[in-house]
Amino acid sequence: VDSLSYLxxxxxxxxxxxxxxxxxxxxxxxxxxxxxxxxTGKIKRLDAYVGEIFPGSYRYEYIKLRELMVKYRGRLVCFxxxxxIYAGYGPKFHFGIETSANINTNPRTENGCIxxxxxxxxxxxxxxxxxxxxVKCDEQEINKPIREERKAEKQREAENEAKRAKKQKGK
Length: 171
Prior knowledge:
By secondary structure, this protein is α/β, with parallel strands linked by helices. The chain has helices at 3-11, 28-40, 54-57, 59-72, 118-128, 136-170, and strands at 18-23, 46-51, 76-79, 85-89, 94-99, 112-116. The protein has a six-stranded mixed β-sheet with strand order 3-2-1-4-5-6, sandwiched between helices.
């Protein structure tokens, strides 16, 4: 089973507000699948973490993935990565998917595990969110502005939550 099959199982249960994926490599068709999910709203926000071989050995895929991340305001991080992970959440649950498979169709026996829970999502999100891309132009042009936007979003959410709590306390 290719690793996207695990994510498809989650998407059959709920659309995703956020998803990250980590892979060493992936095929062009897989990028097109993510694009379709972003266009249709099945996934609202997507971050991509790829292996250091990606920009050189998968040049076409790297260009297409970069275009997709720019268009949909997602992070693209290239680093010494060999992990195969998805983590995300939607209205029903948070999840983490761990597999032995890259995001590509592959005639090999692979394994994987889907875990439902906020803790596994937080674990992977907090780890990957701290990774800096070795591709400097991606880090400056894509990732830094997105991190700043998301920090401001979190601050606004915290302020709104504080206002709601204060209002609730006053009732």
